[in-house]
């Protein structure tokens, strides 16, 4: 029976979810746009941009365990974890705005500015998101309440990703203004700055909502005594952890690598006239505007989703942004719906089986993108939908598998090191994001990528990086998941035996940390 004192009210579940929605304005921007922003808008070379991204993200990965230790030792009248969400809110907003603003200087000063703002953003991300993740484990001691809390969280995350992927580029085009002799696509730097000013305000607001609405109900208790050295010794003997560590490293390499490549796939490979023809029946096209002619009113016009173009101006229009955003929004809606089926599927087949099936199907789905012709816009949307269906159920289940890995450690050794396991998985996650973005930009640098001089080799490279490379990496993830030892029967066995042990010796129930 649920302890009434451990129930989380609806407003608190919604409030808690707000901060993770805010975090995903940064997370999705890193995956989808950061590399292209540095090369195409800020004007950095691909090799330089690769280092600007790699170094701060690796620092972020190493900083996570440090931040976890700081948060665990924080003591305030607001709790251990909530204060960090408050303290980092305003700095997060300021640095997010600066990170997507192009300053007036150039050369080494511009590179230093990019490194500094990205490093500060990554540090604030850890200082905010690590305590936030731990907060979910101390809002209630009831496992079912925590599960419900995570459901709200994942829906909020995908809602934020829906906005970032669906609207960022069309809003950038809208606020960039009309083409001019010096700016054939409008003032893109101004467009990015305006959009991320809005995102910054939204993030700060969400963090304040989370701080104001949440409570820390679970008070610290004295855990079993074990040294950090012992925790890591146990970890190295934990074969399921090793499998999931390397799987996570490759998995998030895919997300960063393909995210950046897919953006360019729509910008450079997909045929702009075919995209214009595809969205025309949807009422999303209009004649090109004359110089100084204001755009007509209307809701879609306000959102920036009406493409004003004719055959002579199609290349400089925002049609690629509109189609990319439309595909992203459809994909996120399908993802949100498909996530709802992850729990019943896992109950029926087991978490491992669903994740293996999802990743195996993503091999085929990614591979299929290579065979699409530039004019196959409808098929690009269709593959986006099927990819979302295949991938979505794995999103919450992988995080549940990480908790199973912690159970396995306790089952085998009698000691539980949930924090160490999630910190090391978090390291693999962020290292993967760094490697993926760095790898794509290094590939671009090897082909001397110049946004103002696109060659057929560059277009072909982005096509391969969107399809064949992710397919190979998804195959590696699938093989690792097949090697993962904790199937449905084993996890049920562990749960039963651990429950029996806790009845005998219930002196310590560890706080569960939530995923990053």
Task: Describe the model.
By secondary structure, the chain is mainly α. The chain is 73% helix and 1% strand. It has a two-stranded parallel sheet with strand order 1-2. Helix 12 runs parallel beside helix 15, helix 14 packs across helix 16 (394-413) and helix 16 packs across helix 17. The longest helix has 34 residues, at 143-176. The chain is globular.
Q: What are the salient characteristics of this protein?
A:
516 residues; mainly alpha; two-stranded parallel sheet; globular; disordered C terminus
Spatial order of the strands forming the largest sheet: 1-2
Low-pLDDT runs: 220-224, 506-516
Q: What is the helical fraction, as a range of percent?
A: over 70%
Please work out how many helical segments DSSP would assign. Answer: 20
| Structural class designation | mainly alpha
String of helices and strands: HHHHHHHHHHEHEHHHHHHHHH
In whole angstroms, the N-to-C terminal distance is 30 Å
**Overall number of strands:** 2
**Approximate strand percentage:** under 5%
Largest sheet: 2 strands, parallel
Shape estimate = globular
Write the layout of secondary structure elements.
Layout: H1 10-32, H2 34-41, H3 46-72, H4 82-99, H5 108-138, H6 143-176, H7 188-213, H8 228-236, H9 239-269, H10 272-279, E1 285-286, H11 299-303, E2 307-308, H12 319-339, H13 342-349, H14 351-370, H15 377-391, H16 394-413, H17 418-446, H18 456-466, H19 468-483, H20 488-504
Parallel strand pairs: 1-2
Helix pairs in contact: 1-5, 1-6, 1-7, 2-3, 3-5, 3-17, 4-5, 4-7, 6-7, 6-12, 9-17, 9-18, 9-19, 12-15, 13-14, 14-15, 14-16, 14-19, 16-17, 16-20
């Amino acid at each position: 029976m649920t302890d009434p004192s451990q129930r989380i009210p609806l407003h608190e579940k919604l409030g808690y979810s707000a901060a993770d929605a805010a975090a995903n304005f940064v997370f999705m921007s890193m995956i989808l746009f950061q590399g292209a922003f540095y090369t195409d808008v800020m004007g950095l070379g691909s090799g330089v941009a690769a280092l600007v991204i790699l170094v701060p993200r690796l620092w972020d990965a190493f900083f996570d365990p440090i931040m976890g230790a700081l948060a665990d030792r924080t003591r305030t009248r607001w709790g251990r974890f909530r204060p960090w969400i408050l303290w980092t809110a305003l700095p997060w907003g300021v640095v997010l705005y600066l990170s997507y603003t192009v300053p007036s200087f150039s050369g080494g000063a511009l590179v230093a500015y990019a490194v500094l703002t990205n490093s500060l953003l990554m540090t604030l991300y850890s200082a905010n998101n690590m305590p936030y993740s731990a907060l979910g484990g101390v809002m209630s001691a009831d496992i079912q309440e925590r599960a419900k809390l995570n459901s709200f969280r994942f829906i909020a995350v995908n809602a934020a990703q829906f906005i970032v992927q669906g609207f960022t580029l069309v809003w950038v085009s809208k606020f960039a203004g009309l083409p001019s002799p010096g700016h054939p696509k409008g003032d893109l730097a101004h467009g990015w700055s305006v959009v991320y000013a809005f995102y910054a305000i939204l993030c700060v607001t969400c963090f304040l909502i989370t701080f104001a609405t949440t409570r820390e109900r679970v008070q610290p208790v004295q855990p079993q005594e074990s040294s950090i050295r012992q925790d890591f010794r146990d970890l190295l003997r934990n074969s399921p952890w090793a499998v999931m560590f390397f799987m996570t490293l490759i998995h998030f390499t895919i997300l960063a690598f393909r995210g950046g490549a897919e953006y360019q796939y729509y910008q450079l490979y997909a045929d702009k006239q075919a995209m214009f023809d595809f969205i025309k029946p949807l009422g999303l096209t209009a004649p090109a505007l004359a110089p100084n002619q204001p755009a007509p009113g209307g809701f879609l016009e306000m959102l920036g989703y009406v493409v004003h173009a004719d055959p002579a101006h199609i290349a400089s229009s925002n049609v690629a942004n509109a189609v990319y955003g439309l595909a992203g929004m459809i994909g996120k809606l399908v993802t949100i719906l498909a996530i709802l089926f992850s729990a019943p599927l896992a109950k029926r087949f087991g978490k491992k089986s669903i994740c293996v099936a999802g990743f195996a199907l993503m091999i085929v789905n990614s591979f299929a993108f290579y065979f699409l012709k530039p004019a196959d816009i409808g098929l690009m949307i269709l593959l986006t939908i099927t990819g979302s269906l295949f991938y979505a159920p794995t999103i919450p289940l992988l995080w549940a598998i990480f908790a199973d890995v912690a159970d396995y450690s306790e089952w085998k050794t009698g000691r539980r090191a949930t924090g160490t396991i999630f910190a090391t998985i978090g390291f693999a996650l962020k290292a993967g994001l760094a490697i993926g973005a760095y790898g794509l930009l290094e590939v671009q640098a090897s082909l001397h990528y110049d946004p103002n001089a696109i060659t057929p080799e560059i277009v072909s490279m982005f096509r391969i990086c969107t399809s064949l490379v992710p397919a190979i990496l998804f195959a590696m993830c699938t093989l690792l998941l097949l090697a993962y030892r904790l199937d449905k029967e084993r996890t049920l066995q562990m749960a039963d035996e651990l429950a029996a042990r806790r009845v005998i010796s219930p002196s310590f129930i560890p706080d569960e940390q939530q995923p990053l």
